[in-house]
Here is the input.
Amino acid sequence: MSSAARATVHDETAVRKRVDVEVPADEVQRELDRGFERVRQQAHIRGFRPGKAPRKVIEQTYGQQITREVVSKLVEHSFHHVIEDHRLDVVGSPEIDAGSLVPGEPLRYTVIVDVRPDITVGDVSGIEIERPEAPVSDDEVEQALTDMRERAAELTPITDRVTIEAGDVVTVDLTSRVGEERQERQGVLLEAGGGAFPLALERQLVGRRLGEQLTLDVPYPDDYGNASLAGKTVSFDLQVNELHAKELPALDDDFARDHGQADSLAALRARVRADLEVQAASHADARVRDAVLQAMIARHEFEVPPSLVVRRSDAMLASIGVRLPDGPEAEELLARLREKVRPQSEREVRADLLLDAIATREQLEVSDADVQAEITAMAARERQAPERLRALYDRAEARDALRARLRRMRALEHVVSLARITPVRHNADIAPPG
Here is the structure.
């Protein structure tokens, strides 16, 4: 099917176009005729042999279905040609408003579509960035060893009291309630007195008793990491079933051999320090990359396609396990959650678009061998079989996404290589970039 469709492109914004398309009447009629003939040859209509039913009978029985299929086919085919003819670099999914199809008349439809912004990359050299450097303190090493002891702790039943004290490990069955949503879990271990905020569930357990049935409310902070819980109060119905003391192993050479894969405590301390130094350097490098990227974004102003921001917001919400309730309030909740993560989503989309433009200007490409090497490296980092991970990237869409990510990483590395980076000594701990 060839397309002689006529299209007029209107600029809604720099990144959003309205395209008015008209498919000529003769092309519409030809496609309708093909549709009816195809159905005539395949349909089984009582009283007629296949291929012999009159068109009027076919229209009465299958007319609406054929019309929908023809409209869909004409729109898909003609808009594909419109994109090519007008060189529209489309991103996101188009919004199509197709009129009704009338035999003997043109098909007219309108498409609202987002396009990639036209980014003119300016000077990317000479960005001045400070690289924070902090020595690993003895306290950090000892905290890491304490964390290792916590992971190796053994639990022993408490039999001489029933009142819960801070530090006790409590086994509970609990049901959490957020609005109409309920989730039941059994055999959950909680350390009494813990929790990241004042009314955390673990803190409210102190002073309670073994065997007690409780209902405790936990208000989550507005800036809580899980957007579906941020600012909400969750009610927990729980039954306290068991009470244990946590016994930490002694920090000695035996601990180093049994739990640290080291010959001695001194060797374990040295390895822990080295690991922390690698982590600190990695965090400092990440901060440099983030600072360079922010400086690049500040140098380049351009509009961001709204559909890409929405898509990134939805992916972000899905990654943190947001589940929407059934019913009419779902759309309203989704809109609120999207708005909450929109600044971060827009920042990420803006960064991706700018890095794509830099990669194009610098002619940075990623080969198939580069993609294969990254899959192997990912398998090693995630301790997965390379064959299993390669199977996940057999789909062209997944491989294209990985290729695009690697290309952006190369673009950022290129800009970082041109930056003026000054090491700055800090006594404070280096935290991962937020």
Observations:
- Residues 428-434 have pLDDT under 50 and may be disordered.
- Residues 132 and 424 are 5 Å apart (CA to CA).
- Residues 6-115 form a domain with the Alpha-Beta Plaits fold (CATH 3.30.70.1050).
- The radius of gyration is 31 Å.
